[in-house]
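Record minuted for completeness.

…
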Amino acid sequence: MKPQDFAHKEPVFDVFSYFQGHSRAWGIFEDRFGTLRRQFTVDITGTVKDGVLTLREDFVYDDGEKDQRVWKIRKTADHEYDGTFDEIVGIAKGVQYGNALHWNYDMDLKVGDGTWRVSFDDWMFLQPNGVLVNRARVRKWGVEIGEISLFFAKPTAPLFSQAAE
């Protein structure tokens, strides 16, 4: 799959516009055998200043653990984005066409008392009514260790009040 395959798909995903303000996501992590390992919610606050989208993501996991990640995203060319946060190794590279955004990046992921260097192959697809579907395959040493599925909604989306309940 290539991001260009989605050039004519709608609704068009404007990354900065979608994430400006508040959004919420619900997610799961499944290991490579399909076993559900974690569930979580994420409250996201996005601000745009001087061409930089800052996303503050506040995670709450089903076991009570909390985490925060702060992305800094820049549009570098038509259809291209760079992103960083503290755990990223180097720079995340994103390509957006139509309703799809594809990210690739490596990060140091907290696992227990240590960290693992993992690679993300991360796809986002904007759906009608402001629902954003995000699927990310996670690899360590080239071997898939699991998949993350996230579903985002905006407070102004018609389905948000039902989804939050």
